[in-house]
Design brief:
4 helices; mainly alpha
């Protein structure tokens, strides 16, 4: 299934699978709940939050060559 950039942006703004299903219906797109769950998981996983990045990277630097790195944390 091919989506427009606008549709993808609207879908990315959805906060739940149900909201994504409603959007699909409004856009005239037939979407099964299983497909919506798959798309929602993909869309939800694309935006990383700072806390997610810190967890993956092992946390925040506390001493960067003697400088205070708290400004970048």
């Amino acid at each position: 299934m091919k989506f427009t950039k606008e549709q993808i942006q609207k879908a990315a703004a959805c906060k739940s699978v149900e909201e994504l299903l409603e959007l699909a219906k409004a856009e005239g797109i037939a979407l099964a709940k299983e497909e919506a769950e798959k798309y929602f998981a993909q869309l939800s996983g694309t935006a990383l939050k700072l806390d997610d990045i810190k967890a993956v990277s092992g946390g925040c630097l506390t001493n960067l060559c003697g400088a205070d790195a708290s400004a970048i944390c």
